[in-house]
Amino acid sequence: MKRRTLAIALISLFVISIFASAIPTVAQHTAQRQRTTQSAQRTQTSTRSTRDEALWQRALAIHRRAIVVDTHNDITTPMTNDDYDLGGDPPYPYRTSIDRMKKGGLSAIFFSLYVKPWYVQHGGAARRTLDMIDSVYRAAERHPNDLMIATSATDIRRAKAQNKIACLLGIEGGHAIENSLPTLREFYRLGVRYMTLTWNNTNDWADARGDKTHNGLTDFGKEVVREMNRVGMLVDISHVSDKTMSDALDVSKAPVIASHSSARALSNVARNIPDDLLKRIAKNGGVVQVNFYSLFVDQKTVAPQSDERNARLKAQQEALTAKYANDPERLSEESDKLEAANPLPPLPISKLIDHIDHIVKVAGIDHVGIGPDFDGANDFPEGARDESMLPNITYELLKRGYSEQDIDKILGGNFLRVFAQAEMVARKMSRTISGGGSTRRINK
Q1: Most Cβ neighbours (<10 Å): which of 48, 363, 368, 400?
Q2: Which residues touch 67 (CB under 8 Å, ≥6 apart)?
């Protein structure tokens, strides 16, 4: 009896072992759940509401057909510093890759050539810009079936037709030209198609947000704007002071852009644009590309949370600042990691869409687009955290009653119009790049 019981037990163990080999372990189940959750997070509109599946399918159809343009992405920094290959998984805490861009239906992306103010004090701003330009060409050459360098509105349409992503260049911070109009033209020759007149630092010819050093644009700054018009480089007024913005609108013969700014009426930070200037941008024919960064979306909610986090992380941040005092790129990378490891509670995506609504109300449907600022910040609204989630914007716009035609404009059509108009202005002003241009520089 005992032997039979033992035999039965042995047979049972044998059978169980066979089935066990085919059954995922608890760890495998957990890993699978994590993968499933991450996949769902990339496409969900919100964890707070149930998605209308029919509307979602309609949104996807619109989104796939539309030309979707992101006018500001900072993944260029790890591409330059660490030779990050867009064909792989992005290094922590960055989020942009070819795979995610494709999942998000992206048609064109402006790689930000962000040159830290450190290079102004220590030299090498123009060289740093050149290094960043090379990193984008390097990506396009590595992945010719997925990416192509673009320098015009026509190129963006061509990339869409070829099922590729158009890669464009935008300088973030006018200090990159080192106070030289010839250098500005050389950057244009290399493919740069917009320049943000300042970053958060006032340069020698333009005031940054909240500053009044020059009372806007200096005479040289106004000449920079005119030269950008002449060659066909878009004037970007994100980051600048209100007076600089106003002066640029006075001077520019072409429509201007705000490559990554939101509405100050909804989030009272100097980086956003007040209603009076939204109206002037509309009159100029320009476009405001809405920034997704949480602080710019809802300052009242996010600023106290951010202040609390900064206070909590102060000692760690000060240690990093001391450790990497002479290495601005590593300092920035380590600071990003520290912040990303301590995320703020995400805002609902509805608050982001509120900015699009507001700009449409104040400036009109022809003057708003998207410039998310991915990889230039860590905290973004729920459902809008990286390029793969861009279809959620289309879904939310449909929920608010926007027509397919209007959604096309917001996703990229408005920007394409402005880009083409700037090209037309340049053709009317000059048929040469350097031949008719000033050689003026500020020598310090």
Answers
A1: 368
A2: 107, 108, 156, 157, 160, 408, 411, 412, 413, 416
Does residue 443 fall inside a structural domain? no
What CATH number should be reported for the domain holding residue 226? 3.20.20.140
Query: Looking at the domain assignment, is residue 124 inside a domain?
Result: yes
pTM of the model: 0.89
pLDDT at 297: 98
Res 36 pLDDT > 90: no
149-168 core/surface letters (b: 16 or more CB in 10 A; e: else): bbbbbebbbebbeeebbbbb
Residue 263 phi, psi (nearest 5)? -95, 125
Per-residue b or e along 181-193, where b marks 16 or more CB atoms closer than 10 Å to that residue's CB: bebbbbbbeeebb
- Per-position DSSP letters for 279-346, written without gaps between them: HHHHHHT-EEEE---HHHH-HHHHHHHHHHHHHHTHHHHHHHHHHTTT-HHHHHHHHHHHHHTSPPPP
Question: How many other C-beta atoms lie within 10 A of the C-beta of residue 48?
Answer: 11
How far apart CA 335 and CA 323 sit, in angstroms, is 12
Which residue segment(s) compose the domain that 425 sits in?
50-299+347-429
Per-residue pLDDT, averaged over 328-333, amounts to: 96
* Amino acid occupying residue 331: L
| 163 belongs to a structural domain | yes
In contact, 411 and 160? CB cutoff 8 Å: no
d(CA 390, CA 292) in angstroms, rounded, equals 11
Residue 133 lies in a domain: yes
Distance, C-alpha 216 to centroid of its chain: 26
Give the model's confidence band at 49: pLDDT under 50 very low, under 70 low, under 90 confident, else very high.
Answer: low
Residue 4, Cβ density class (10 Å: 0-12 exposed, 13-18 middle, ≥19 buried): exposed
Give the model confidence (pLDDT) of 58-69 as tens digits.
Answer: 999 999 999 999
CA atoms within 13 A on the CB side of 183: 18
Q: Residue 132 pLDDT > 90, yes or no?
A: yes
Q: Is 146 in contact with 159 (CB distance < 8 Å)?
A: no
* Residue located via tokens 């793969």: 388
Instruction: State yes or no: cis peptide before 93, omega within 30 of 0.
Output: yes
Cβ atoms 120, 201 nearer than 8 A: yes
